[in-house]
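Session log. Operator J.P. requested a structure for one protein chain; no other inputs attached. Running the standard single-chain path with token output.
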Amino acid sequence: MATKPHFKFYPKDYLGDTQHLDIESHGLYMLALMHLWINDGYLTKDKFRAILKISSKIFEKKWKKIDDFFKKKDNFFYQDRVIKNLENYYKICEINRINANHSSESYSESHSESHSETQAASLSLKVIKPKSQKEKIKDIKGLYFKPPTILEISEYAKEINSSESPDRFFDYYESKGWIVGKVKMKSWKASFRNWTKNSFQKQNESQYIDIGREINESRLRLKTL
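Structure written below.
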């Protein structure tokens, strides 16, 4: 996945909401916002503390000063404004991609039609009408894949009774740009089910290998008696 280059920041709103914070708390709050942005809006306090490399006792003491700026769900903390900005960011990225594809198609068709005036005169030229905003949003629903958050994976794992680690699944596919084989992932839920199934099969294979090894060792011991 491409790195998200920036997030919206509103200095006037920020200063108005954080007048009671000391300098250290300002730094902690800004770090929390930045790490929420690059982690798709959700983060556990334990992971954030590990990033900061400070003890639990010190972290909890400092966190109390900025706790009211965030909402909680299960073990994750998040902020509505960050979530909203992320959704807008992904929509803009996909609209730009669709517009770029349409522009490329329009240019290719126009270039080929003007290549020969004689042929153009005998052909019924197709006029490409620019798509409306509503049509573009429809395209997005069909083509756009939004990577899941760790929280969403965690909730789905509970739903299907999977014991697989949501963090492990997320980190693996995040590092690969959410590519399966050579194509963009279409359904992360289907991929997670396959991930769980493959992990279960590997565990069984490992157990069979261990059992086979124990049987062979027992036979060798009997031969030596």
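Operator note: The first helix runs from residue 11 to 17.
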